[in-house]
Write a structure and sequence with these properties.
- The complex is a heterodimer of chains A (285) and B (255).
- Chain A is mainly alpha-helical.
- Chain A contains 8 helices and 1 strand; from the N terminus they run H-H-E-H-H-H-H-H-H.
- Chain A folds into 2 domains: 38 residues; 179 residues, no CATH class.
- Chain B has one domain: Cytochrome Bc1 Complex, Chain C, CATH 1.20.810.
- Chain B is built from 12 helices and 1 strand; from the N terminus they run αααβααααααααα.
- Classes of the chains: A mainly alpha (285), B mainly alpha (255).
- Chains A and B meet through strand 1, helix 3, helix 5 and helix 6 of A and helix 3, strand 1, helix 5, helix 6 and helix 7 of B.
């Protein structure tokens, strides 16, 4: 009934009646919307509707884990033996993404600073994302940057490295295809180089350190600074002005750190780059 | 005349009436009272917004995570009756649980698989909350609590990983805790640690593992963290998390 009212209105709008009847149509549509809202109440009783649903989902979950636990036994290997190191030694599966990143970074970054950045980065999301759209419903267009960044980080980096670490890393942390024989004696000749050697400077010199530090800092700060200048300073983009410098820089540094992980992975895989920067006191990136 | 179903026959029986003094009348008042007068159910509001029932919207993952936590608590307490967290007994108690304790194996299996499932459920819950923008005002702080609960879940799972005291657990925990020694300033192999003078016996990793090696002292430390310290912290955070869902206006939805 209400649907047909709306359709009739839409058909009317073609025949060139003036502003006055447009106003009347808007009012009619508003009334229709109100009628619809009353016809389908927004709220329902928790009992029985939600409790019933929870009961059903809970029963299904319990049935699932019970069957799973009957069919598959939890692993129990030989007794703990600190003198016998298995090859490969793997962390629990949910940490294998971080163990995978150890290929590309020293432990202080891959095992401590990066996970801390991830936790802090997740926690600040509500405070740096000031876009009011997309609150409480699925959408992509209204918040494409937030969703793309999140999907890239979660699926593209976290989940995919967990899968790589779990299924295709074998002895010596070498890559083995699923089903491939795990040769514990596998070795690959690798000549790693440091970033500054591309400029003809040894990485363990002061000049090498400065090149490395400048490159790393330049990567983190440079592109966001240029982007801020274009958007906020020159074009006076309203969104960037509303976002403000502090929120912008927190977002930018977290974003560039995530991208930096990807850049380092590419540099390592394509050019055997071990360190971008070789600093004092084991401070290497 | 209407034919009586089996349920009507049961309901009109003498025994049924002796148990339930009166029938349940499906009135608005009773629907509200069912929730508000029940200590467990009154976690819920008495009325919810319609879309909160849609599994396509909620995925039910928050609730499933909580259910898995409850299953883990029950199975975990049962396992605690049979398990001693010492170097001499831990592994033998695992064998005892698996081969001699009635239903020991299925309790252990459920505990382990639910732990894995809980990690996945937390990830999916966060994924759903992000995709629906539910961290946006007024729910900013509850997202922060949620991230802390993610950390608690991972720490619970990680500390539990050591307890079977087999090769799998000791080496997984070795790999995991070895990261601690690379903590900047506070780990003996970390950047700038030389400046502070920390060594292998007194650094961030040694604090977690109770010494330089993963040994019986580590086992006891992880056991206490796993069974008491982290569950208590997680429970407190969960109370705040659920409370905030209510106080921030129920579960999110189109404004």
């Amino acid at each position: 009934m209400a649907q047909s009212t709306i359709t009739a209105d839409t058909e009317d709008s073609g025949d060139g009646t003036g502003d006055r009847s447009d106003g009347a149509k808007v009012k009619e549509r508003a009334r229709t919307a109100q009628r619809l809202a009353k016809a389908i109440p927004d709220k329902v009783h928790t009992w029985p509707y939600l409790v019933r649903l929870e009961m059903m989902v809970g029963t299904a979950v319990m049935a699932f884990v019970t069957v799973w636990s009957i069919v598959v036994d939890a692993p129990l290997e030989e007794p703990a033996n600190p003198t016998k190191t298995p090859n490969p030694s793997k962390a629990p599966w949910y940490f294998l993404g971080l163990q995978e990143i150890l290929v590309y970074f020293d432990p202080w970054f891959a095992g401590v600073v990066l996970p801390s950045l991830m936790i802090v980065g997740l926690m600040v999301i509500p405070y740096i994302d000031i876009n009011p759209k997309g609150n409480g419903y699925y959408c992509f267009k209204d918040r494409w940057f937030a969703i793309s960044t999140f999907l890239f980080g979660f699926l593209g980096l976290w989940i995919s490295t967990v899968i790589i670490g779990t299924f295709i890393r074998g002895p010596g942390w070498y890559l083995f295809l699923p089903g491939e024989y795990w040769d514990v004696h596998k070795t690959q000749a690798l000549t790693n180089v440091d970033w500054s050697t591309f400029f003809g400077v040894a990485s363990d010199t002061t000049a090498g350190f400065l090149i490395g530090a400048a490159s790393a800092l330049g990567f983190l700060i440079g592109p966001p600074a240029v982007w801020w200048h274009i958007k906020a300073v020159r074009r006076k983009d309203a969104f960037f002005l509303q976002l403000g410098k502090l929120r912008y820089w927190i977002t930018a540094l977290l974003f560039m750190s995530m991208m930096g992980v990807v850049v380092k992975m590419v540099l390592r895989l394509a050019f055997n780059v071990k360190y971008i920067m070789l600093g004092p006191y084991n401070f290497n990136i | 005349m209407e034919k009586k179903g089996w349920f009507d026959v049961v309901q009109s029986s003498y025994v049924w009436k002796s148990i339930f003094r009166h029938e349940y009348q499906d009135t608005y008042r009773n629907r509200v009272l069912q929730i508000s007068t029940n200590v467990f159910l009154h976690l819920h509001p008495t009325k919810i917004r319609r879309h909160a029932l849609r599994l396509r919207f909620t995925w039910c993952m928050g609730g499933i995570t909580f259910l898995l936590f409850l299953i883990l608590t029950v199975t975990g307490v049962i396992l605690m009756f049979y398990y001693r967290p010492t170097g001499e007994y831990a592994y033998h108690d695992m064998k005892y649980l698996q081969f001699d304790v009635p239903f020991g194996m299925i309790m252990r299996n459920m505990h382990r698989w639910c732990a894995h499932a809980m990690v996945i459920a937390v990830w999916l819950h966060m994924f759903r909350v992000f995709m629906t923008g539910s961290y946006k005002p007024p729910r900013e702080f509850n997202w922060v609590i949620g991230v802390n609960l993610l950390v608690m879940t991972l720490m619970l799972s990680f500390t539990g990983y050591l307890l079977p005291w087999d090769q799998l657990s000791i080496w997984a925990v070795t790999v995991g805790t070895n990261m601690g020694r690379a903590t900047p300033l506070l780990g003996h192999e970390g950047p700038f640690a030389e400046l502070l003078g920390v060594d292998a016996r007194y650094d961030a990793r040694a604090l977690l593992t109770a010494g330089r090696l993963i040994g019986p002292a580590t086992l006891l430390r992880f056991y206490v963290l796993h069974c008491i310290f982290i569950p208590l912290l997680a429970a407190i955070l969960m109370i705040v998390h659920f409370w905030r869902v209510r106080k921030d206006g129920g579960i999110s939805g189109p404004l």
